[in-house]
Amino acid sequence: GAVVSQHPSRVICKSGTSVKIECRSLDFQATTMFWYRQFPKQSLMLMATSNEGSKATYEQGVEKDKFLINHASLTLSTLTVTSAHPEDSSFYICSARQTSAYNSPLHFGNGTRLTVT
Amino acid sequence: GESVGLHLPTLSVQEGDNSIINCAYSNSASDYFIWYKQESGKGPQFIIDIRSNMDKRQGQRVTVLLNKTVKHLSLQIAATQPGDSAVYFCAENKTTQFYFGTGTSLTVIP
Asked: Does the beta-carbon distance from A103 to B96 stay under 8 Å?
């Protein structure tokens, strides 16, 4: 149980274009999902908390107009990188909790490798 | 801000030996901790968790120890196998957010 699916696994786009990444909870409902970014050989950096039916909460320093988050259903959250630039190239990973209890583990998708050329 | 750090960035062990990965956390109010394993190009995989009202928890071949006095967390892997080679992160949870450490890269030597 507690499977989180992320799509696509890899994407290459040209500078200036937008890219959408999907995150789905396959066997549970998630009112909250979390989006992380990871640079090579570094840790996970929380970008934003995606809340079903309401606005996402962004971490300090993360541009909400550049990283658009939509959580339209209890099983799907999307992250859109708008007007992508080479510095946006990174590994993006989503996660969700199977229960609403805060002291329960996050389950992660397999990530999306974004390369902006 | 809160931080979670690891004592060793890399660790090499012989196959069959036990591995110990350490983690220091700074927020004494954190009350839930998790160890994750991340293989190259994949998302983190849950290994084991522990709540602050415990000091030890065992899983299959893994044991997590929590020392709240010195704010230290460790992951012990018994009879380490080549498939255990990965980066291991500890994470601490306070309210709704998880803070991740920098990671320890474990290499198992056949």
From this structure: no
Q: Check: CB of residue A113 under 8 Å from CB of residue A9.
A: yes
Contacts of A38 (CB under 8 A, 6+ apart): A44, A45, A90, A91, A92, A93, A111
In order of B13, B17, B75, the CA distances from B20 in angstroms are 10, 10, 6
Give per-residue pLDDT as tens, B46-63: 999 999 999 999 999 999
Which residues in B lie closer than 8 A to residue A109 (C-beta atoms)? 43
What's the token pair of residue A62? Answer: 């993360």
Report pLDDT digits (tens) over A77-91: 999 999 999 999 999
A93 closest CB neighbour out of B32, B43, B97? B43
Extract the tokens encoding A31.
Answer: 């009112």
Among B36, B42, B95, whose Cβ lies nearest the Cβ of A102?
B95
What percent of chain B is predicted at pLDDT more than 70? 93
Q: How far apart are CA A9 and CA B52, in angstroms?
A: 36
